[in-house]
Automatic annotation (TrEMBL):
PANTHER family reported in the protein's UniProt record: DTDP-D-GLUCOSE 4,6-DEHYDRATASE-RELATED
Name of the protein in question: Dtdp-glucose 4,6-dehydratase
Signal peptide: none
Limits of the NAD(P)-binding domain: 10-326
Species of the source: Spathaspora passalidarum (strain NRRL Y-27907 / 11-Y1)
């Protein structure tokens, strides 16, 4: 017996940090939706975060490298459309670590651009074939890093000026999406969040890395002099933003900056984490830091303007100390 679902959704990169938190929350929040997760399972994936969903009738997992399997993907999504009938796409899949992109820039280009463009091509063909019968939706997860080193409250019209290979792949994808919007009249929404943090984040990003180093009593490797600033967005606040935009009914091509309110420099962030881990404000955090060679170029800060998403009624709720309490 085929169960009817109101929506059938493809989540790419759903075994990663943000994707797995997304699926853990939304597969249960929307039992009337069917979710298919496609993920190649790389070093940062955490399949255990979504394994329990396999017992539910509205979740399916497919292990596939989106950058290398266009024919398989096309056959699944387009040729055999009526078997899966996927109409909604939320695209998380990417290699996401700046430091790794500095070591393997070509791999990041091949993976990040092709993984998304292969999905875009299927989306384009689906709309060509079925847009008179089905309403399709595509939300792409970009990043504030596409703006590069900004500190002037940049809005969504800001100039793309990526300063590292990872950010360049994300900016390139945004521009490819823009070309699809113009040339094929495809409605695609782009989200550009700040640094997202929360449970089950692979410990190479600064927050989970600092916690891991303190737990293992190993030095915390801080790039340069530790004065670089980032703005941190707790995972639940980002998921609420995605949910709001996804169900807003907006089907034009919009870009949304999704920013936290917690801008902090790396030294102060380490100090705050030390205070939380050791449960005292009098800890000397400097003893746990080892200053190491900085990135070739390390964006000083990302000051993005969030007025557009706030006009939809969204605002960040979890402040950094509270978010840290939830993951330490
Ligand atoms: N974490 C952040 O602070 C942050 C901030 C802004 C934007 N983003 C963006 O959000 C998205 C998710 O980030 P994350 O932190 O969850 O990353 P992550 O590295 O934790 O997870 C990414 C997932 O995508 C999968 N993936 C990568 N390439 C793939 C491919 N070719 N085929 C199939 N699966 C593939 C990986 O296996 C992994 O499970 C990324 O697009 C990233 O650029 C992340
Ligand atoms: C929006 C992007 O956020 C993440 O990229 P980012 O490089 O800002 O995150 P990191 O956690 O890697 O770095 C934050 C900050 O800490 C410094 N740092 C990091 C790791 C380390 O071992 N030592 C450090 O000192 C780093 O230089 C930065 O200043 C996210 O990874 C990305 O996907 C985004 O899109």
């Amino acid at each position: 017996m085929t169960i009817h679902f109101d929506k059938r959704v493809l989540i790419t990169g759903g075994a990663g940090f943000i994707g797995s938190n997304f699926l853990s929350y939304f597969v249960r929040k929307y039992p009337n939706y069917h979710f298919t997760c496609i993920d190649k399972l790389n070093y940062a994936s955490n399949f255990e975060n979504i394994a329990d969903l396999l017992q539910l009738n509205n979740f399916k997992f497919i292990k596939l490298d989106l950058s290398e399997s266009f024919e398989t993907l096309y056959s699944m999504l387009v040729t055999n459309f009526h078997q899966m009938e996927i109409t909604d796409f939320i695209n998380f899949a990417a290699e996401s670590c700046v430091d790794r992109s500095l070591i393997s820039p070509l791999y990041f280009t091949k993976n990040n651009i092709l993984a998304t463009q292969n999905v875009l091509e299927c989306y384009r063909e689906l709309r060509n074939k079925y847009s008179h019968q089905y309403k399709f939706n595509f939300i792409h997860i970009s990043t504030d890093e596409v703006y590069g080193d900004i500190n002037q409250n940049t809005d969504e019209q800001g100039t793309l000026c990526p300063t590292n290979p990872y950010a360049a792949t994300k900016a390139a994808i945004d521009l490819i999406i823009q070309s699809y919007q113009y040339s094929y009249n495809l409605p695609i929404t782009i989200l550009r969040p700040n640094n997202v943090y929360g449970p089950n984040q692979y410990p190479e990003k600064i927050i989970p890395l600092t916690i891991k180093c303190l737990q293992e009593q190993s030095p915390i490797p801080i790039h340069g002099d530790g004065t670089n600033k980032r703005c941190y967005l707790y995972i639940s606040d980002f998921l609420h933003a995605i949910d709001l935009i996804w169900h807003s009914g907006i089907s034009t091509s919009e870009i949304y900056n999704i920013g936290g309110d917690c801008e902090i420099d790396n030294n102060s962030l380490v100090k705050l984490i030390c205070q939380k881990v050791f449960k005292t404000n009098s800890v000397d955090h400097t003893q746990y830091i080892q200053y190491v060679k900085d990135r070739g170029y390390n964006d000083k800060e990302y000051s993005i303007n969030n007025d557009k998403i706030r006009q939809l009624g969204w605002k960040p709720v979890v402040v950094l100390p509270e978010g840290l309490d939830m993951i330490i």
